[in-house]
C-alpha cells in the first residue's frame, strides 16, 4: 500500500496551514476536505449521493447545506451561498454534483491521471470498471498482511480492509469505482509536489 498514512498526515497539516492563507471559497472547501486526508473529498461526495433521493445527480441549495452539515463542514451560510453560485453556472438553482466533485478535486496533470488509471486497470481484473474482492484475488497477496499472519483476519477480511482504504468513510460497500479511485489519489497527489515522484510512488506501489 503506498505510504498513505504518512502522506495523509502531511497533507492534512499542509491543508490546515494553507486554509489560513486563502480566501477563495472553493479552495477553502477543498482544503477543509483535504484536512481529513485522502478520502475527504470522496466522503463528501458520498454524503451528497445518499441525499440524492431521486437519483437526479443534482442538489439544490438546501440539500447542499444539509450535506455540508452532515459531513460536519463548518461553513457559514454566506460562504456556502457563494460556493453554490460558483457551481450553479446556469443559474437553475441546482448544481450537478459530479461536476462539483471533479472541480473540488485538486488539479492533476494528465501524466498523474494516466498512471492512476494504469493502477486501476491492473487491479480491475474483470475489466468492468469496478474493483471488488474478486478482482483482488489474483493481484494482491493477502498472506503478507500481519493480521492474516497472526490469524486475526481471513484473506477476504484483508481484501475488504484494502478496498476500504479507497472507499468512502460513510458508505463502505466493498466496491471501488474509477471515480472513487481517482478521488482518493487526487487527495494523495495533493501532498506530492512533483509528477516524477508521484509516478515513481505509484509504480513502486502497484508494480507497474
TrEMBL record:
<keyword id="KW-0106">Calcium</keyword>
<feature type="domain" description="EF-hand">
    <location>
        <begin position="39"/>
        <end position="74"/>
    </location>
</feature>
<dbReference type="InterPro" id="IPR051581">
    <property type="entry name" value="Ca-bind"/>
</dbReference>
<feature type="domain" description="EF-hand">
    <location>
        <begin position="75"/>
        <end position="110"/>
    </location>
</feature>
<protein>
    <submittedName>
        <fullName>Calcyphosine like</fullName>
    </submittedName>
</protein>
<dbReference type="InterPro" id="IPR018247">
    <property type="entry name" value="EF_Hand_1_Ca_BS"/>
</dbReference>
<keyword id="KW-0677">Repeat</keyword>
<dbReference type="InterPro" id="IPR002048">
    <property type="entry name" value="EF_hand_dom"/>
</dbReference>
<dbReference type="GO" id="GO:0005509">
    <property type="term" value="F:calcium ion binding"/>
</dbReference>
<dbReference type="InterPro" id="IPR011992">
    <property type="entry name" value="EF-hand-dom_pair"/>
</dbReference>
<dbReference type="Pfam" id="PF13499">
    <property type="entry name" value="EF-hand_7"/>
</dbReference>
<feature type="domain" description="EF-hand">
    <location>
        <begin position="111"/>
        <end position="146"/>
    </location>
</feature>
<keyword id="KW-0479">Metal-binding</keyword>
Amino acid at each position: 500500500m503506498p505510504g498513505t498514512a504518512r502522506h495523509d498526515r502531511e497533507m492534512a497539516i499542509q491543508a490546515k496551514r494553507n486554509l489560513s492563507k486563502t480566501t477563495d471559497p472553493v479552495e477553502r472547501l477543498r482544503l477543509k476536505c483535504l484536512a481529513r486526508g485522502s478520502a475527504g473529498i470522496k466522503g463528501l461526495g458520498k454524503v451528497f449521493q445518499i441525499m440524492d433521493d431521486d437519483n437526479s445527480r443534482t442538489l439544490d441549495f438546501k440539500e447542499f447545506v444539509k450535506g455540508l452539515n452532515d459531513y460536519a463542514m463548518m461553513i457559514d451560510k454566506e460562504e456556502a451561498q457563494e460556493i453554490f453560485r460558483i457551481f450553479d453556472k446556469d443559474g437553475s438553482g441546482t448544481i450537478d454534483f459530479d461536476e462539483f466533485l471533479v472541480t473540488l478535486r485538486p488539479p492533476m496533470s494528465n501524466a498523474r491521471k494516466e498512471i492512476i488509471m494504469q493502477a486501476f486497470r491492473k487491479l480491475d481484473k474483470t475489466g468492468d470498471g469496478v474493483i471488488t474482492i474478486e478482482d483482488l484475488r489474483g493481484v494482491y497477496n493477502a498472506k503478507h498482511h500481519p493480521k492474516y499472519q497472526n490469524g486475526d483476519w481471513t484473506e477476504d477480511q484483508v481484501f475488504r480492509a484494502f478496498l476500504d482504504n479507497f472507499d468512502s468513510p460513510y458508505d463502505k460497500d466493498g466496491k471501488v469505482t474509477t471515480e472513487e479511485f481517482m478521488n482518493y489519489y487526487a487527495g494523495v497527489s495533493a501532498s506530492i509536489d512533483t509528477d516524477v515522484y508521484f509516478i515513481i510512488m505509484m509504480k513502486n506501489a502497484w508494480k507497474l
